[in-house]
Amino acid sequence: MTLTPELDPFKLAKALSGKHLIGGKFVAAGSGEVFEVDNPATGEIIGTAAFGTKEDVDTAVISAKAAQKEWAKLPARQRGKLVAECGRVLANHVEELGRLVALETGKALRTESRVEAGVLADMFTFFGGLGSELKGETIPFNPDMLTVTVREPVGVVACIIPWNVPLLLMAMKAAAALVAGNAVIVKSAEEAPLTVLRVAEIMNTVLPHGLFNMLSGFGPECGAPLVEHKDVKKVSFTGSVETGRIVYRAAAEKLIPVTLELGGKSPMIVCADADMDQAVAGALAGMRFTRQGQSCTASSRLFVHESIHDEFVARVKAKVDAMVMGDPLDEKTDIGTIVSDGQLERVRSYIKIGEETKGATKHVCSAMPTDPKLKKGRFVQPVIFTGMKNSDRLCQEEIFGPVCAVIKWSDYEEVIAQANDSEYGLAASIWTRDIKVAMDATRRLEAGFVQVNQNLVVQPTLSYGGVKTSGIGKEASLESMLEHFTHKKTIIFNMK
Q: Which residues touch 257 (CB under 8 Å, ≥6 apart)?
């Protein structure tokens, strides 16, 4: 069966309303309950999502467990071909998926959502090509024994994803798990359930039914029973540190493996000799202003050398001022909205903290949209704070909004120490023309994803994951597929 792309996101949201996808079919929640999904740009209700509970989790796990047994019997390359085919089919739906994720998350279509939908397809294509890499080893243990290892799937995998880049993060987890021979149950974020549900529908036109399931709901009622289910053998979670600890404790009770990506407070160090144009562009991309700063890897701590500080800040502000805030579905829009009322209140509270910080100066950027239809939207202007110290709350706590702290520095040893003075360790970058400085910084910065003179987002094949409270494990790479979604079995043949 081939699905025709639906380019009207409002129509698509209604068609997907009130449903899980279990066993290859749309089903209502066992309780019959739903919750509302709104458009962050206007506040209007665009649809509903099924309110998942333990009953729905049990049904999904039964379906996934049965499908996984047959899936694991397929040759790995054949599994890879089917996952790659999912990528090809999803590529035909990029525009549709981009529009729908823009509608439910508030991310601008042109600058963010369409790009994310494209990377979704690429991620499935990438992992699909790795089927032949599920190899074992021959071990020279004893000349009279043939000793080998093989990779085997773990079983049913729970993928719990956030709302900021739901398509990308779902793909990083699910594509690797599927190629490795596992079945997948995705638990979507309550703020953004509809586009992920559409992806599940599309993928079930290619994959055996029951292999890829999707549940919507809230953490206590749906997420917790999924993590705790006895037949879920692996959890891959992206979200807050607080929730990550809860997931980790629950998984530890069952002694199952987990992958955790839990956020960051990423430093961007700009040296006096940095290419100014390149560094300014890097700050714009690194801070994820076009995603309203709603990114785990956002370069929200900008360490700028005192000799270029004023010019750098002025140029960054001018660039952000030129960005257009507006309807996420409008092609003219650069910056969309904050996803929820709770997150909007959180961002505003941190702006207030910045205003009350001794020595800080607030620089408000861009301009609020003037369209009357958007007056109830969750828009907030980007803010750059200068005069900050690394010990200030804005420099230590993850805000997940368009709020950036600039810290002036002069001593290299001191700035490296300050960059590392954080509970987080997800990403970092250094901007310099001096290769010796760059090499030294990449060795000493305490982060899992370090870049020089660039701020790329997550890409297929680049191992991605943090240290310290930013998480456990890697994603988006061959390594992640092998180490996090398979077990290694040792087999010994006595040849005497």
A: 154, 234, 235, 251, 484
- pLDDT-derived band at 223, boundaries 50, 70, 90: very high
Q: How large is the angle between the packed helices 114-128 and 76-91, nearest 10 degrees?
A: 160
Instruction: Tell me the whole-structure pTM to 2 decimals.
Output: 0.97
For 20, the enclosing helix (H) or strand (E) is strand 20-22
Angstrom distance (rounded) from CA 22 to CA 200: 9
452-456, long-range: CB within 8 Å, 24+ apart, which pairs?
A: 453/274, 453/275, 453/278, 453/279, 453/282, 453/429, 454/282, 454/429, 455/268, 455/282, 455/283, 455/285, 455/286, 455/299, 455/429
Confidence of residue 1 (pLDDT cuts 50, 70, 90): confident
Q: E strands, 225-300, where?
A: 232-238, 258-261, 267-270
Neighbouring C-alpha atoms within 13 Å toward the C-beta of 296:
32
The DSSP secondary-structure symbol of 468 reads E
96 is catalytic: no
In terms of Cβ atoms closer than 10 Å to its own Cβ (0-12, 13-18, 19+), residue 132 is: exposed
- Catalytic entry in 159, 271, 296, 404: 296
Number of Cβ within 10 Å of residue 58's Cβ equals: 15
What is the per-residue pLDDT for 157?
98
Would you say 183 and 210 are in contact if contact means Cβ atoms under 8 Å apart? yes
Instruction: Quote the CA–CA distance of 78 and 342 in Å, as a whole number.
Output: 45
**Residue owning tokens 């043939």:** 146
Q: Is 133 assigned a catalytic role?
A: no
What are the start-end ranges of the E strands in 354-468? 361-364, 383-386, 403-409, 424-425, 427-431, 449-452, 467-468
Query: Where in 262-374 does DSSP place strands (E)?
Result: 267-270, 301-305, 361-364
Task: Compute the distance between CA of residue 256 and CA of residue 235 in angstroms, rounded to an integer.
Answer: 8
User: Could you count the other beta carbons within 10 Å of the beta carbon of residue 32?
Assistant: 9
Output DSSP code: residue 208.
Answer: P
Q: How far apart are CA 198 and CA 185, in angstroms?
A: 14
Task: State what percent of residues in the chain have pLDDT above 70.
Answer: 100
Distance CA 188, CA 456 (A): 25
Average pLDDT over residues 479-483: 96
Q: From the candidates 261, 398, 446, 475, give the one annotated as an active-site residue.
A: 261
Helices then strands (H, E): number in the chain? 16, 22
Separation between Cα atoms, residue 198 and residue 202, nearest integer Å: 6
- Orientation of helix 94-105 relative to helix 114-128, angle to 10°: 130
